[in-house]
Design goal:
The complex is a heterodimer. Chain A is mainly alpha-helical. Chain A is built from ten helices and seven strands. Chain A has helices spanning 4-28, 32-46, 64-73, 80-91, 128-138, 149-160, 175-189, 199-203, 239-249, 260-271, and strands at residues 117-119, 124-126, 210-211, 214-215, 228-230, 235-237, 282-284. In chain A, the strands form three sheets. In chain A, strands 6-5-7 form a three-stranded mixed sheet. A two-stranded antiparallel ribbon of chain A has the order 1-2. In chain A, strand 5 and strand 6 form a beta hairpin. The radius of gyration of chain A is 22 Å and the shape is globular. Chain A starts with a helix and ends with a strand. By secondary structure, chain B is mainly α. Chain B has one domain (27-105). In chain B, 76% of the residues lie in helices and 0% in strands. Chain B contains four helices and no strands. Chain B has helices spanning 5-23, 31-50, 56-70, 74-101. Chain B is elongated and about 55 Å long. The chains are: A mainly alpha, B mainly alpha. At the A-B interface, helix 2 and helix 7 of A face helix 3 and helix 4 of B.
């Protein structure tokens, strides 16, 4: 029996097996930079008349009538009271004499565009809301509700000091950071709730369309305007509040605010909007 | 067609049976029926919770079942519990299918 044939056959089989395995692995490994580019291109192609930096204005970038009303409202914006409250809260020292400024780079001014960030020590995503509450707790203060007015006011002020600065979310060379990004992406595209909607159903497949009386915002730049004053809420709302409400609206039981899934979702959505300016605090119908 | 005595008797019997079927109500549900149905619904909803994929309508149906049982309306309680179980099972199915299906929506 000639031994060479079986060896050749085995080698060929191995080579074939490797060739089959390699592309599968590559397909499942996310490439955030390429994906962010594809994400942006999708919206730019879908709305060729909208300037890329205008996507951060959500429905106002999609509808001329709404835009006119919004521009008039911006002369006396409904979030102004919250902004003032946030500024006051931010500047007021804690009982121990320290303040929020002591917890953040650049005393917390003009840094909103860098959140969420990935904490290598903890191996998790840190959102601005989470960082604010950790700052409070580290200084002996009780944490604020993630869906309450005070957190909305604080983040409104911090967003205001970052207006115009482009989102600059980093994914460090750390498999856990890439995993967080991938988890966020999965959450974004996964259908849930009795209505069987994903985040993408509204904000990728149907931006610019009406959902009852609302015009759906594009996912590109959607977090740049946060927090937002919503007439529907009659007040300001944080990113946490928005995510929890989105889940309830599609009849899914919301997760706890700042659950890992929400933090990862915020990481993913912010990353794919890198380069677009912070426009928060915003206002929406 | 001429009707024979046998045919007439059969027709009367069928009519009587039809009337009995039309007027008799289904057997009333008992507390035990409710407990069985509610336990099954709760177990399914718990499984959906483990998958982080519960639906608000399941919780509403469970609450309605409990409320009906509290006032002794076990028919409604069983109906709501069964509805809750069906909803919970649908949410479990959704979680299973979305494990891979989400990838089809991704912008590439």
């Amino acid at each position: 029996m000639n031994l060479r044939s079986p060896i050749h056959l085995a080698s060929a089989t191995l080579a074939l097996a490797l060739a089959t395995i390699t592309p599968t692995v590559a397909a499942d490994t996310p490439d955030p930079m390429a994906e962010a580019k594809a994400f942006r291109n999708y919206f730019v192609a879908k709305f060729p008349n909208v300037k890329p930096e205008d996507f951060v204005n959500g429905p106002y970038s999609m509808n001329k009538d709404m835009r006119r009303q919004w521009e008039e409202k911006e002369q006396f914006p409904p979030y102004e009271f919250s902004l003032d409250m946030g500024k006051e809260m931010f500047g007021k020292p804690f009982k121990n004499g320290k303040s929020y400024a002591d917890c953040f780079p650049n005393q917390g001014i003009g840094i909103r565009q860098n959140y969420p960030s990935f904490d290598a020590k903890e191996g998790k995503v840190i959102t601005l809301e989470l960082a604010l509450n950790r700052c409070r707790e580290a200084n002996g203060e009780l944490p604020l509700s993630y869906v309450g007015d005070e957190m909305a006011a604080l983040t409104a002020y911090m967003a205001f000091t970052s207006r115009g600065k482009p989102f600059d979310i980093k994914i460090p060379d750390d498999p856990r950071a890439l995993e967080a990004y991938q988890n966020g992406k999965r959450y974004f595209y996964t259908r849930r709730g009795q209505l069987n909607f994903s985040c993408a159903t509204c904000h990728v497949q149907n931006p610019g369309e009406r959902m009852r009386a609302e015009i759906l915002a594009p996912a590109l730049g959607i977090l740049n305007a946060m927090p937002i004053y919503r007439s529907e809420w009659g007040g300001m709302g944080t990113i946490s509040r928005r995510l929890v409400t989105c889940n309830s609206q599609i009849r899914a039981v919301p997760l706890e605010p700042q659950a890992d899934e929400y933090r990862d979702l915020e990481y993913y959505l912010s990353y794919v909007s890198n380069g677009l300016p912070i426009s928060g605090p915003g206002s929406r119908p | 067609m001429k009707m024979t005595g046998h045919t007439v008797r059969l027709s009367i019997l069928s009519l009587a049976l039809a009337l009995v079927n039309a007027t008799s109500a289904p057997a009333a549900s008992s507390e035990a029926d409710f407990n069985t149905a509610y336990a099954a619904a709760e177990a399914a909803d718990k499984e959906a919770g483990r998958l982080h994929n519960q639906w608000t309508v399941t919780a509403e149906a469970l609450a309605d079942a409990k409320k009906a049982a509290d006032i002794g309306d076990f028919d409604r309680a069983v109906t709501s519990a069964k509805e809750a179980e069906a909803l919970a099972k649908a949410s479990i199915l959704q979680a299973a299918s979305e494990k891979e299906a989400w990838k089809k929506l991704e912008i590439r």
